[in-house]
Amino acid sequence: MMMSVRLCVALAVLAVANGVPPKASDVGWVVLNSGVNLPVVGLGTWQVTDDRELEQALDAALEAGYRHIDTATIYRNEHLIGKVLKRWLSEGKVKREELFITTKLPVYGMRPADVPYFLNESLTKLQLDYVDMYLIHMPFAVKREAYNNGRIDANGTDLTTDHLAIWKAMVAEKEAGRAKALGVSNFNETQIERIIKNSPVPPANLQVELHLYHQQKPLIRFCRKNNIAVTAYSPIGSPGSKWLTLLSGKELPDLLNQPDVKAIAQKHNKTPAQVLLRHTVQWGVAVIPKSSNPKRIRENIDIFDFSLDGKDVATLDALDKGLDGQLFDMKHIGGSESHPEYPWTALLDKPVA
User: Fold this and answer.
1) Catalytic-role residue among 66, 75, 108, 342
2) Mind telling me which residues the site (Lowers pKa of active site Tyr) is annotated on (predicted)?
């Protein structure tokens, strides 16, 4: 049974109420339906591929108490993460059972036979015997040959995607001990429900874009009803994704300078990012903010010594823009909008983003 993340976060608040920076044991967690503990604050590593930058970020994160590290095959940084983890483990600075490492099956590996192949590749690069969670990164697929060194051909769509066959292969990896928990990313309710109804092993986690302007409350309620934890990517609005503006002409939201957020941050003597992360965590959702700045990395996990009151929460809840607040529609990935498993059909008539 999944423990309420709100309870876990409340316990963490008490643990760091004296103002001391959080230790790994102070960070809140949620017990997944697979029985695994998922720390509610993790380090996102998307768009960080520079060796020195990522090594410094991981060192800063682990020193600050992070034990949840999120990566993916398509991020092309698993080998760098593995190098740092190996050093920390070999020096006895952390135990393997204290870590929670997530990686993902790539969009160009969406066939049952690809699952063991790509998971084994990830384990080799991460220098681990198992990952704590393995996710299907996207519900749609592109052909293997459409991927070339970080780029995906515009016409690379593979229409043969079979979620149930892929999920069965994922379950086999869990049963073999190479993944402690399984989940999906960017799936919609219908796609998740299909897996639930046809497999004895339900997804333990859904990872989706979720932030102040795109709060995903109906999806959270659906997952809560089905005992599935939710993890938010881009929880502070992905301010580093300037390429999105160049690609689509869509303006990135400046959530860190939103007036209500700044006022609440001042009230609690916290940063705007800390308020945004705290707001999401109080909704029972885990967060994986990406940063390579050691100071911001430390700040992003230092959210367990305060709580937002009812007025704060109501103010922030009211800023949800729903579908209009979504930043990533993935239409740029291999013609994904023409795929039968494209998850956001309501976006099909909107401009590419």
Assistant:
1) 75
2) 104
CATH number at residue 262: 3.20.20.100
Strands (E), 20-127: 29-31, 37-39, 43-44, 68-70, 100-105
How many other CB atoms are found less than 10 A from the CB of residue 83? 16
For residue 224, being part of any structural domain is answered with: yes
pLDDT tens, position by position, 131-151: 999 999 999 999 999 888 778
In a domain, 69, yes or no: yes
Amino acid identity for residue 142 in this structure: V
Taking each helix axis from N to C end, the angle separating 294-301 and 51-64, rounded to the nearest 10 degrees, works out to 30
**Residue 134 appears among annotated catalytic residues:** no
* Domain contains 296: yes
Specify the pTM.
Answer: 0.91
Q: Is the residue at 13 inside a domain?
A: no
Residue 268 counted as an annotated binding residue: no
Structural domain that includes position 71: 29-325
- Count of the separate structural domains present in the chain: 1
Among left, alpha and beta (phi > 0; psi -120 to 50; other), residue 230 is beta
